[in-house]
Amino acid sequence: MSHSVTTVNPYTLKNIKTYQVQSKEDVMKALDKSDKAFQKWKLVEIEEKTELLYKVAEILEAKKHDFALLMTQEMGKPISESIAEIEKCMSLCDFYAANAESFLSDDIIETEAYESFISYDPLGTILAVMPWNYPFWQVFRFALPNLTAGNTALLKHASNVTGCALAIQDIFIEAGYPKDVFQTLVAPHETIEELIKNDKLKAVTLTGSEKAGKSIAEQCGNLLKKTVLELGGNNACIVLSDADLDKYLDEMVSARFQNTGQSCIAAKRFIVTEGIYDSFIDQFTKKVRALKIGNPEENDTKISILARPDLAETLKQQIDSSVKAGAHVLFGNDVLDAYFAPTILTNVSPEMSVFKEETFGPVAAIIKVKDEDEAYALATNSRFGLGTMVFTENIEAARKKIIDIPDGAFFINSMVKSDPRLPFGGTKASGYGRELSKEGMLEFLNVKTVLINK
Ligand code: NAP
């Protein structure tokens, strides 16, 4: 096993920095320290904990451009989106600072007992295994509610964003969190198995691929440890004949192409009814053609490099096999190392890779359907369950479909996106459990019933 990890800028292909990898012993020591820190941290008053959230937000604001640049250099995200990601983390600080106390305070339940209530108690050390695609946001949306609720955290980030992982640890230290309440591990995922087996580790959250999710779920299942899994998706974007394209087309383009298409909740399958198909294709293609491609450090870049060349290779294979099965390349499909041009495929059908699998890059698969019924039937024909979006002027008809959508989210006239105030998570092969909002905060708490008679 390698003893160091070197981060590489996917755009310039230059090495950024080499980091020492921690040994298994060091990782186990970090767990001991985290458990010790928990014993004190859980007793700290909520006001003190929420005060620290404001400090985190101040640091994010003060160093916004440095953090954004680090993210862009490590994984190629266009800089304007990196800045927006840091700002979203700041809004998450504000949200939990304003609401944590009410989310966590005891719930009094009237019974015949003298007193009965629910106490929301922290569990202890939680391990977070995180991906590279939103290097700050994914970590903050786990860490802020959990630390504020009294848990302590160990972060095992994707190795290509090790600089971000360590910068996040520094933010918590600078904000004044007690030592070891949040620790970043620089360790390969093989080291994690030992950690999970230890009784001091109470639960695991993983955002990442289905394969990694299954492995974590299996290990934790055997030990009866709780997990939250945020995995892949192939969200459908239904465009019905009465959709307002003038108003929502930009939103639909962002839904697929933001983060250069490397988003779990992206609109990966556009299911378009025949009444609007020609004008949708015409206008959508014009918008995609106009996306500015280039250096991720330039402010107006909308599409840049993928985070790693192997991601482009996988995407290419998915497209090649779909084209062999009858898909038509309407636009794009140029590949060079980690660069993948924005691509539109038409004539897509359910047996093709680009329909069945998750495409993690700037590829829009378009499916033409007869009517609304066929559109919803195809949208829900998926192993995944992160979200579905529909664009239509008939809100009442769309509202009736809520019960039929088996996903974690159903957005009408909006792209599926995360929001601190709303729960976020999936069903089926997209995982289980929720992040954000009150629901996300309660995932790793002991919802304890207390009953007192006298
Ligand atoms: P990944 O390969 O699964 O890696 C994610 C994290 O899991 C990394 O820290 C990785 O560590 C670790 N990991 C990999 N295999 C593991 C295993 N067998 N056991 C334990 N940990 C393991 O995924 P990725 O390529 O970085 O991220 C893309 C995937 O994440 C996509 O499928 C995307 O849809 C999903 N995602 C989901 C959400 C959501 O909220 N639902 C959000 C963002 C991304 P190493 O780097 O050391 O391998």
TrEMBL record:
Keyword Ion transport: no
Entry annotated with the keyword Transcription: no
Cited PROSITE patterns: ALDEHYDE_DEHYDR_CYS, ALDEHYDE_DEHYDR_GLU
Domain Aldehyde dehydrogenase: 4-450
Domain of life of the source: Bacteria
Transmembrane parts of this sequence: none
InterPro entries: Ald_DH/histidinol_DH, Ald_DH_C, Ald_DH_CS_CYS, Ald_DH_CS_GLU, Ald_DH_N, Aldehyde_DH_dom, ALDH_GabD1-like, GABD/Sad-like
Residue ranges the record marks as coiled coil: none
Residues of the active site: E230
One GO MF term: succinate-semialdehyde dehydrogenase (NAD+) activity
CDD domains hit by this protein: ALDH_SSADH1_GabD1
Keywords of the record: NADP, Oxidoreductase
PANTHER family: SUCCINATE SEMIALDEHYDE DEHYDROGENASE [NAD(P)+] SAD (PTHR43217:SF1)
Family: Belongs to the aldehyde dehydrogenase family.
Name of the protein in question: Succinate-semialdehyde dehydrogenase
Source organism of this protein record: Aurantibacter aestuarii
